Amino acid sequence: MGPAASHLTHSAPGHSPGPVLTLMSGLVGAVDWLWDHWYLPAGAIALLFGAAEMVMRHLAERALTQRMALELIPSPHFEPGLEEIFRRGVQLARASTAMPWWAPRRAKSVQIRLRADGSTPLRYRIEGPAGGERLLSITPFGPHVTVHRARPIADPPRRHVVRAEFLLRGKPTAPLREVPLDPDPLQPLVDAVSDLRAEVGDLAEVRLNIQRAPKWALRARRVQLLQAARRQEHREAQRAARWMRQDATGMDDSLVWTLKGLITGKDGSRRRLVMPPAPRRVEAEEALGKLADDDHLVRVQLLVLCASNIEGRAEARLAQLQAAFDVFGGRSRWAMRGWHLGPWRLGADQWPTRRSFERRWHLGLCRPPRTNWVQLPELTGLLKPPTVHCRLPLLAGDLPSFEYANPELLLQGIYRTPDGRRRLVATYTAETLFECAVGKAGGGKTERALAQAIGYAHAGGGLLFLDPHRDSWPRAAPFLAHDHLMRRIALIDLNAAGPASLMSSWNPIAMHHGAAAHDVVEAVTDAFASILGWDDATAPRALTILTSCLTVLVAVNQAACQAGRPKDQATIFHVRPLLSDAGFRHAALAATAHQLDEETRSWWRTVFPTFTPDAFAVILNPLARLAANPTTRAFLGQALGVYNSRAAMDNAMIVWVCPAGNGPTDRLLTALIARDLLRAVRSRRDTPANQRRPFRLYFDELITLTGAAPETIASMFEDFRKYRVSVHGMTQLLGRLPAPVRMSLTQNASTLASTAGSKTAITAITAEWADQPSADEVAALDRYKHYMSLTVHGRRIGPVRITGPHLDDVFADQARPGNITALQHAALANAGAAPLDELLAAAAVQQGRVTDFLTQHAATTRPGLNKDTQGYQ
Questions:
Q1: Quick one: pLDDT at residue 247?
Q2: Cβ(279)–Cβ(288) under 8 Å?
């Protein structure tokens, strides 16, 4: 080597190495040191990341303390459209960012909570930043969804708890399956929790966190997907090239190729040139799929927790929910995070992921997996509460279970739960005001009413069961034959079988009960007018004459009671002698002259004499029919009738009234009874509201009853609520009821029930339910099966399918067939029943007793008043 080269390679004495060499040697030393002490920088980096994580956790927890919760309660007819649901999703995504600027990304989310614990079918809650409350409170669903500020839920500890986190698997860029809105997409989830039992601590809750997609994370995800797509295309191209070379080599070495070369004279040893295919260009939109557009793209976190106090129920519930989420699956699907090793599942219940799950569950943190990217339309089924197309189970919290001898509960029927259990269900007595049962004969309407009435009677309630056919009394008797009930039961049976038949009695115009005179007159007059079709336009004279007659007879009865002679009271049969017997009329008017007002006395002096005898026929004819019938003659011809509907209400009596049939005379008697009930109930206004004892009326065969007194029955359904009297009506055909009754009944009914029947008859009821169920479904019901809508806590429940209670099953323990004879005697004794021939004999002499009383009473009045009676003949 020459001097020049030596000069280049050796530094001159006294000079330091060059800066480049120094830098290189320093770097080599640093690398060597790091290699030997790698744990120090690793520890520093870990410490730095740990400190950053602690700071982020602290900030997240601080931000999450400023959260609020809303509960959404849909109406029974809630039916949103896709646009409304989409707008709600946009609101949720926007509200997720309504947090302080310093809040970490994991705290910026809105959480949808779907919760079921056996008390409600499915509670739908929204939890989010406090700053987004106004945005979340005003929903695009309008008045069909009620939004309430929700309180925190404190769950008691359960013995068995399972947890799961769901992530999207399958093709990461493919959307979830588009689920239609009818049936409701939430139906699989509702079905999965339909058999929860609150008494054993069952709980199932789904929490879906929605978070707006951060731009940097979206870009990184897109880069990953594009690179993966390109690698896939390269692999496909390489695979295709490999197969092409193998095919070409195989053909060159084949016997066919060699023979072809010999025949053509070409060199068969030359190999063909194979051009491998180029990788297909990756299109971004195709590779990115739903991640290609930024619009309405969110990240989601789906957590599920199931718990119970009974081993195995929580695990089974989680499996049901997993199956429910399969409904949303397509090329992309929801799957539980973790692994299965034989019988063991490594997931959110085991270390190390359980602690992370608990923190996210309790704090509301959102740390979604990198695969959980969705477009808002994919979440359509979870962005709204259950709709009208969702079949909700009937839980104990919705419809209480019947308790024997509990006066606050009214038996309705038997409900079969989704898991096959049968439960006696009831409504609250205080809010079950009017009930209507429709269906064909023998379908179970009367049986259900009897079961309800018997249960109410055993609970201490008072009732009146009006049955024109008397079939209900022998059916109910074995279950009412208890000593503590016999004191309160009265039987008014008008089906006389002979002279010795025992029968009660009633004087509609009696005054010894203390009723108001004008109310009694109005009740009897309206009963006659109702059954005879009188009104002020068609029969004003008949109404005037009958009203005037009853006014005088009621005054006579008042005088008899004041004189201490209530057995000398007149009956409605004394209208006939008052109109046709001048002597009786003169005595009655003379005896009551000081009780009647001047206008009434003047009418009898000046107007009555102008009527010809044939003007009274319209009044005397129905009275003659009543008098000609021995049963009605005996029942209505007694001065001191025992039947007193007002006393029955005030003393919680159990009264069975059985008219003899539905002929003209029977309809008139039924009209009198119905109008007396209306008068008696309205008379309760003299009692403070809180002291009025509840009373229930059961009307079997409403068609018969309303044919006798349509306006009276309609008024009952309109007015009785104020007086704490409820009505339960049964009919085969709602359409055959008079229009006023039908409208009042359907308008005010707390319970509407229907058994099987013709579609024409059932349509009137299903129309009230918006044809859900349809008339076809109701018409095909089996015997004792009902569809009914009920009212609980002011909210309509149903219509739900209920099995009508059968007395021999529901009240089998209460049957006392050996006491039926004693019950019959006690019920007739409480009704003051006497042999028919004795009652007829007493009715025959009653006019003479009244005449004697009037003669004696008139002699004791002031002589000056007797001149007012002149001209009455």
A1: 63
A2: no
pLDDT tier, 270 (very low <50, low <70, confident <90, very high otherwise): low
Distances from the Cα of 609 to the Cα of 466, 572, 612, angstroms? 42, 22, 8
> pLDDT-based confidence at 872, cuts 50/70/90?
very low
Instruction: For residues 232 and 282, give the distance between their C-alpha atoms in angstroms, rounded to a whole number.
Output: 10
* 428 touches 659 (CB < 8 A): no
Radius of gyration of the chain, Cα coordinates, nearest whole angstrom: 45
- pLDDT of 271 strictly over 60: no
Total length of the chain:
873
Q: Indicate the helix (H) or strand (E) that contains 519.
A: helix 517-532
Rounded CA-CA distance 523/513 in Å is: 15
**For tokens 């989420």, what's the residue?**
325
The region of weakest confidence among 246-255, 581-590, 708-717, 732-741 is 246-255
- CA dist., res. 134 & res. 191, Å (int): 33
Q: What is the mean pLDDT of residues 713-739?
A: 86
Burial class from Cβ neighbours inside 10 Å (0-12, 13-18, 19+) for residue 322 reads: middle
Find out whether 531 and 709 touch, Cβ atoms under 8 Å: yes
Spatial contact of 682 and 719, defined as CB atoms under 8 Å apart: yes
Report the candidate in 45, 40, 825, 856 with the shortest Cα–Cα distance to residue 502: 825
Q: Are 763 and 779 in contact (CB under 8 A)?
A: no
The first and second tokens of residue 1, run together, are 């080597």
3-state helix, strand, coil in the chain (%, to 5): 50, 15, 35
Alpha-carbon distance of 230 to 242, in angstroms, equals 18
Burial (0-12, 13-18, 19+ Cβ within 10 Å), 579? buried
In this prediction the pTM is: 0.78
Of 173, 261, 184, 187, the C-alpha closest to 221 is 173
**CA gap 413, 217 in Å, rounded:** 58
The single-letter code of the amino acid at 3 is P
Asked if 108 and 146 count as a contact pair (C-beta separation under 8 A), the reply is no
Identify any residues that bridge with 305 across adjacent strands, giving them in sequence order. 163, 205
Amino acid making up residue 48: L
CB 72 within 8 A of CB 147: yes
Contact 427, 791 (CB under 8 A): yes
Please tell me the distance from the alpha carbon of residue 743 to that of residue 872, in angstroms, as a whole number: 46
